[in-house]
Amino acid sequence: MKKNIKLIMSGFNGVWTDNHIYYDKKGNETKFYNSNDCIGVLFLNLNNIPVIILTEDHSEIIKSRLEKMKITDYYVGVNNKMKVAEEILDKYNVDWDETAYIGDDINDLPLLKKVGYSAAPAHAPYYVKKEVDTILTKKGGEGAFREFVEKYLDEKGILKNTLDKYLTIYEAVD
Question: What is the spatial distance between Cα 21 and Cα 82, in angstroms, rounded to a whole number?
């Protein structure tokens, strides 16, 4: 059984996206997202586990996507993820071993090494994969965040309860 995780932090590009940046003929930037990751956020909400996003990117597209998913605690344009993460842990009054992180690249390594539970998407470089607790089967933009959440909840023994909560809430809506 995994430790009692009270907070999940995540990088964004390469976890929630396929790490590509697309431009239309007018030069407008867009990104590709997998809506399955929204269910991961919902499952964490049902278990009162906050989701925090840390990204070096400062794109308005990211802010818009996070707000649509009702992730209100996010940090964009972050150059030093470790420093910001320490402030987040203080804010939520949690320890490193009560924190999980999913990231895909070299800038995520300090956090991946420090947290109580870590994961990397399937496309992460080998030197990132060898530092994490879990290597996911999905790449970023393919539902890697949801896979991470479901894997943690299953290992913790609370996935079935989470699914039952979800079905109870959303069956009542239909």
Answer: 25
